[in-house]
Amino acid sequence: MLFFVNDYGYGAHPKVLEHLTETNMQPLTGYGNDEITASAAEKIKAACACPEGQVYFLTGGTQTNMVVIDALLRPYEGVVASSCGHVNTHEAGAIESTGHKVLTVPHRNGKLDADDLREYIETFYADESHNHMVFPGMVYISHPSEYGTLYTKNELERISAVCKAFDLPLFLDGARLGYGLTADTDVTLPDIARLTDVFYIGGTKCGALCGEAVVFTHGNMPRQFETMVKRHGAMVAKGRLNAVQFDALFTDGLYEKICAPAVRLALKLRDGLAAKGYRFAIDSPTNQQFIIVENSRLPELGGKVAYSFIEKYDAEHTVIRLATSWATTEEQVDELLRLL
Amino acid sequence: MLFFVNDYGYGAHPKVLEHLTETNMQPLTGYGNDEITASAAEKIKAACACPEGQVYFLTGGTQTNMVVIDALLRPYEGVVASSCGHVNTHEAGAIESTGHKVLTVPHRNGKLDADDLREYIETFYADESHNHMVFPGMVYISHPSEYGTLYTKNELERISAVCKAFDLPLFLDGARLGYGLTADTDVTLPDIARLTDVFYIGGTKCGALCGEAVVFTHGNMPRQFETMVKRHGAMVAKGRLNAVQFDALFTDGLYEKICAPAVRLALKLRDGLAAKGYRFAIDSPTNQQFIIVENSRLPELGGKVAYSFIEKYDAEHTVIRLATSWATTEEQVDELLRLL
Amino acid sequence: MLFFVNDYGYGAHPKVLEHLTETNMQPLTGYGNDEITASAAEKIKAACACPEGQVYFLTGGTQTNMVVIDALLRPYEGVVASSCGHVNTHEAGAIESTGHKVLTVPHRNGKLDADDLREYIETFYADESHNHMVFPGMVYISHPSEYGTLYTKNELERISAVCKAFDLPLFLDGARLGYGLTADTDVTLPDIARLTDVFYIGGTKCGALCGEAVVFTHGNMPRQFETMVKRHGAMVAKGRLNAVQFDALFTDGLYEKICAPAVRLALKLRDGLAAKGYRFAIDSPTNQQFIIVENSRLPELGGKVAYSFIEKYDAEHTVIRLATSWATTEEQVDELLRLL
Amino acid sequence: MLFFVNDYGYGAHPKVLEHLTETNMQPLTGYGNDEITASAAEKIKAACACPEGQVYFLTGGTQTNMVVIDALLRPYEGVVASSCGHVNTHEAGAIESTGHKVLTVPHRNGKLDADDLREYIETFYADESHNHMVFPGMVYISHPSEYGTLYTKNELERISAVCKAFDLPLFLDGARLGYGLTADTDVTLPDIARLTDVFYIGGTKCGALCGEAVVFTHGNMPRQFETMVKRHGAMVAKGRLNAVQFDALFTDGLYEKICAPAVRLALKLRDGLAAKGYRFAIDSPTNQQFIIVENSRLPELGGKVAYSFIEKYDAEHTVIRLATSWATTEEQVDELLRLL
């Protein structure tokens, strides 16, 4: 069975596991107050060209979204996101569990559009009864988006400008950031650090067993952030768990080195399928490809390839997702192309 | 520097790390729907002699407490705990963040007493205005307690009987359960499974990098528990993270095998210190020892041993904690005894 | 200045005030455990032809929505509402403050459509990852809707049938129910009691100073509902405040008697404006009329009539709302028609 | 049956009802943006000698406590209260429902002691792990207390000084403030405005049908307080409901004029009972008297007097509460003294 179901099916990249092993018997202070956490944070700040940044390691994506959003919003505020944003659709109400509404703007190609955002905010303030409504308090985007698409630098700059104009923090969910940075893009890690107020670098889907590195980009980590992390049950006693993995991923550019091949293989898959006449539900430049398949072909396919069902396309077609990861091999892609 | 500051200073037991390594490149379904999760759950149910049990793996102790308690309580209920219970003191309000009050009963030697519990509940229902008060909705105990003390089987049976009489689920926090099971005790894992409604087996402090195994003991896992886990940001995409570690810990009795020496060394330390005339703040039969030290000796001690400050004892003395773990060696204890 | 800005600009209907006065010095048990509360509840149950109903008096609409919805939903569930539902738009995130998401379906003429509802639910359950999503846990509709429109009996029956098919409680917000019951409609109070699981009869906008009467229609008031009301700060010490008003409103059919003229006057206004060539943003059969006015006319109008701004219609037109109430007089409507 | 069960058994003081009646048909802007609300606020500010104060009218005591506390605390903070504080005991977990812990200090005679408060805070900050604990974020006291006792001006000044030293807002719950101000006390309304950051003047128990007037004493009303009120379902559409009542109560000193006799009668009752040999559970100088009665006398008493059961005193005695209010008459007290 070929595994293309997602990008979190394998364990950790061998170098990550190796670093866990080699540091294993080193006694460390708990709760992230240790030297490896400090080292990993420094490496990340360097990679972001963001010396004034503050880094905090959490364990998973939904957890990170809820902790960061709850920490930044005032009680009467909500987070603006595109309608397909992960926080709006697949987090089981984690944001609402903290008492905050997700305020949605229809997505365009999986992304939030700066003009739509501005219009949303202006309409809100123009409403005479907006004191009875949930205030937009911050903006959430993901890069790559849920559909694998990417913001251009210009798009990010325009969103950032709207956020600044209305004094709204911009938060970028980088659960799959590695596959975004290594695609055909003009957006770099320092660009993201410059244009957002807080973002996270995804570990779970990009080579780690778990872990997401939150970066507050300009000394803006909320007061007692650590206590708020604990309050959400998100603090790990062994801070090394996440930190050691990021320490490995940000040594010698490992993070991008292992994500780049996944993107290359996804595009090879895309081009190969296109050549065979397959259509795509969305044009994705990253490691997730959304393919329209005839329903009649699914049973046979399912016997040979593990994929994700996304949605019905029409009465006779289905959209499925094929995802590569740092663990995908050239042979697997070639074999898949033969099968499809 | 000798490390006796806590039981989570080292990484994972080598066999745990080994199992993470050997299963690393095995592709697995996400979110705990994989065969290793199933295997680990079966091993735990066998160790608990609890075939009808349901096991769910979470990542940390505070997280586990908040998720389980929030899942079991109705909105108008709180959790009864001893005043020194971890949920009441050191979880940054995680229980309250889910909207529930911690209802406290003064502790006795770190433990909740069955008679105190019964009196609390009876007083509540006798109060004419109890409809305006937070209802006791479940009972939380920890074993070992925060002070390292243990319930006897009889004590657990009596608490369990009170809970049954008032239809209150009993939840046992076993963050350090390994050190409880391997102490001089008449309480076994099957006893705990029989006497509680839900409990967790601590991994983080007992040989794992992270992970706590929640056991619902009689088919009583709340409906859509998984969704509630996700809602609290507590679900890991790579379910293997926690499951593989427990799969190792519950193979060939590793869990108890590695905890037993920690308890033996803690008692060796205790007896050695007692012989030197040291006094103890509490009589602990497990891996945490609470020692009364003259303040004047602390600076010198601090230069050689990493320990935890607990509280002032009087103007001239301080209570410190010395903790052993699966990683503590006989040599370290001997060296510490020489130093003190 | 003519007052057409809303239906809560005046105090209470004189008979309501009179009943508050005549019962004022009668000592009553607190918190709704008094005989007037019991009397008012009986009168409401009789009016609803719902002997097994359970009635609870609350103070305001948003409060009622949040208390009822929070009491009915399980933690992992949200409430399905139309996109223009009051709970989604103008309650400052009150529902989310209780930890629950509002799940929206696009509205049709201000209303939720049964087929849209069914499709929403079926799509949810068809999604392979719905365990990571907020479950639809109940359905919220308002009658009249935010736009003054009404469900037909057939529409309600179809929504009710979908709810029953999926075991979802149906909650009807009747903030303006008096104006709905007395419009040209085939829906009666007993119909509503029969077709919903819980609904409320609005007092604030229909003749009372405050107060909403929640009716659980078939012995389904949640366990310890009273405690949950208290927990939301929604219990009044003097239960008489709301109960006496409803006791008056449900004596000799006062509720409908005072709402009917408001509807008649609103339709007189509508027909008069239509005859003068005005266009309407929506076709409302109740006491709120949504009129499209040229922007250039607004300043003059604003000097003579208090109205509500609703939204821009286009570059040159605005939608305004004119509302009648039990306090509106024929003379005021005639004067308004002269002005417009 | 003589009514001494509480101070909220009757409706509103006749002058309050009269003002509701005389303003009833005056059309007013909704949600508290009307001239009577403004007038009442001005009168209260004048009575408090607090021109920079900001007044907001809410409907009930628990509601007020939860709204104010939630608005003032940061997410990682709790409210410090005495163990018998209403927020800790009889609000059904309303504070916790907003995600905040009530941090308790043992009460002294129903009151919080400044030294106990200071010690609590200092102990918190001295704890090395206080980042894992709930931070004290504000201080709650009630005046009169739950037991009818009063702070002296010196006691308030000392509490206020501790609060200022640690930058903690001081919130005074004045549900029965009228009976506190008119007792034998050196504390005036301007003193309270000067020594607290926010307090409320109770209406429900002091002559109104409902209503509590929150006063932020120095321009410190939280940003978008109104939206947070709405979010808690605590905003009334007809702002007049509460405002008109306070407008009456603060005209010509009505508030104190009607509370003073209640205190005088309570003390007459106290002195009369003391002369007959009755003992008191607490020495209360206000309208609530806590009397120790032989159990054997309760059945007969209960047939003639409505009182509140407080708690068992010992095997043969019970503590009951007798409360007077603005509605209590000299004749009722004389009759009660004859009976007892």
TrEMBL record, chains A, B, C, D:
Family from the record: Belongs to the threonine aldolase family.
Taxonomic lineage: Bacteria, Bacillati, Bacillota, Clostridia, Eubacteriales
Keywords of the record: Aminotransferase, Pyridoxal phosphate, Transferase
Needed co-factor(s): pyridoxal 5'-phosphate
The protein's name in its UniProt record: Aminotransferase class I/II-fold pyridoxal phosphate-dependent enzyme
Gene3D superfamilies: Aspartate Aminotransferase, domain 1 (3.90.1150.10), Type I PLP-dependent aspartate aminotransferase-like (Major domain) (3.40.640.10)
Residue ranges occupied by any Aromatic amino acid beta-eliminating lyase/threonine aldolase domain in the UniProt entry: 30-236
Highest taxon listed in the record's lineage: Bacteria
Organism from which the protein derives: Agathobaculum hominis
Pfam families noted in UniProt: Beta_elim_lyase
Gene Ontology MF terms: transaminase activity
